[in-house]
Design goal:
This protein has 341 residues and is an alpha+beta fold. Helix content is 40%, strand content 12%. The protein has helices spanning 21-27, 66-85, 116-120, 130-149, 182-188, 201-206, 211-227, 234-237, 243-252, 270-283, 294-305, 312-317, 333-340; strands at residues 17-18, 36-39, 43-50, 53-60, 94-100, 103-109, 162-164, 170-172. A hairpin with a 3-residue loop joins strand 2 (36-39) and strand 3.
């Protein structure tokens, strides 16, 4: 696949190798700041080029602290294990790794348009259109469903880890916290990982981990796509409230016009917005058993993207096994008038 905006080409599936530290040092011009892409919990990411192909090199932190070294090694191995198993259009392709001395580096495809987080900023040069927000949500949901179908829990589903092309094709990245086996799942319950603004309540309180914890995190991302507000934007949310705390009363009362990003107030489909907020609300249920599965999320987003916003199918898939949306929840003409007014 070639990006329509910058002509960056995705690597072919299956191309993978071991790299030397010297190769990656040269490819990134000595990890020069001019090639710096981002900083994450696991380490820094740099752009590079090798054999004419653009790459991203993640430099896992290793320092003198033994405990930190062990954690860094664990996250490095988790990411290598997780990415070596996945083959999906909405998940980044791992090209190889380097484990040499104290150096732990992961090499993966370069994704040309940065992370979703960069496009949500209120001072972003170009506002993300409503159509592209739905497209990004759909791509991220499909990638997450693929992971769940392959017994992988991402555990760090945030806008920083949702990468975009200039065509707004979506790829999930950063698998340093991913859980790929039942044994790892049991160990992870001893130490909660991930950004606290995206962590499901049952995981934060009791260490209970499941695919539904990813669904909750995805719900926060969906809320950000709707509102255009970062989860950590304390200037807009206040010093103590999270985005979910701020939005939950509006979602519960179905006040969709109160949560829509003001920058696209005149450029969104009110029927799609209604169902997007219902979908976010279902993903963010405090009870994990009442949350949707990612299969239900993907089905709902497919209907929304296709414009089937008044169908019985959509009503059914935006309902969990414990709650069902009645026909009274269908979008009304009065709501359309309210949001457009």
């Amino acid at each position: 696949m070639i990006c329509g905006g910058c002509k960056n080409r995705r690597p072919r599936i299956g191309w993978k190798r071991e790299f030397t530290y010297a190769e990656l040092y040269a490819a990134t011009d000595g990890f020069s700041m001019k090639n710096f892409l981002s900083e994450g919990g696991c380490g820094s990411v740099y752009k590079g080029q090798i054999h004419g192909m653009n790459i991203a090199v993640k430099q896992h932190r290793i320092n003198g602290n033994t405990n930190n070294n062990m954690q860094g090694d664990k996250e490095f191995r988790s990411e290598v294990d997780a990415l070596s198993k996945v083959r999906h259009e909405n998940v980044v392709v791992m090209l190889g790794s380097c484990s040499e001395g104290n150096h732990r580096l992961l090499v993966y495809e370069f994704v040309c348009n940065g992370s979703l987080n960069q496009h949500l900023h209120q001072h972003c040069r170009r506002t993300l259109s409503w159509e592209n927000r739905i497209k990004v949500a759909m791509g991220a949901a499909r990638g997450l469903l693929y992971l769940h179908d392959n017994n992988i829990i991402h555990r760090d589903m945030t806008p920083n880890n949702i990468l975009l092309t200039h065509d707004f094709e979506t790829l999930l990245g950063d698998f340093g916290l991913a859980i790929t086996s039942e044994e790892e799942r049991e160990r992870s319950e001893e130490c909660v990982g991930g950004d606290e603004d995206y962590v499901a309540p049952e995981y934060a309180e009791d260490g209970k981990l499941s695919t539904k914890t990813d669904v909750y995190s995805f719900g926060v991302v969906l809320l950000q796509l709707i509102t255009g507000i970062r989860a950590t934007d304390r200037t807009r949310l206040g010093p103590t409230r999270s985005l979910v705390e701020w939005a939950r009363p509006f979602l519960k009362e179905k006040k969709c016009g109160s949560v829509i990003d003001k920058r696209i107030m005149e450029a969104h489909d009110c029927h799609q917005l209604y169902w997007m907020t219902r979908l976010a609300h279902s993903c963010l249920s405090q009870n994990p058993h009442k949350r949707l599965t990612m299969a239900q999320v993907v089905e709902a987003l497919s209907h929304i993207a296709e414009g089937c916003t008044c169908s019985e199918k959509l009503k059914n898939c935006v309902s969990s096994s414990h709650t069902h949306l009645s026909s009274s929840l269908l979008i009304s003409a009065s709501y359309a008038t309210q949001t457009q007014g």
